[in-house]
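Board notes (copied after class):
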Amino acid sequence: MYNCAGEEFSKLRQIFAMLRLRMRVVGPDRYHIPLEELAQGKGDPGEAADTLPEPMLVFCYLPQALLNQVLEVIRVAKLPPIPLKAVLTDTNRTWNTEQLHEELLKEREAIEAQKGEQA
């Protein structure tokens, strides 16, 4: 979880607790650690990077059915939007937070460009 602190995200924490999912809040002092190590609770803090400008979630080690359930519950709960979501994969497991954030932004821009072409 990135930038999901504060009262507006308390419902998200409740949802994760209800589904018995473990949450890990990642602060700027851990952005340099590869995603797989973050998921395992490894990696030493370093120099704090700039905080990400928006919330981001990375789902790790969830079966597809449970991931679908989590996403549906989040949608129905009408939480503040969290447009940047990812799943830990073989491709991105060695990326750090900033690399993942850049890729998600590129993906979002590509999707928006496609929507613009279709309009």
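Comment from the instructor: The chain has four helices and two strands. The first strand starts at residue 56 and ends at 59.
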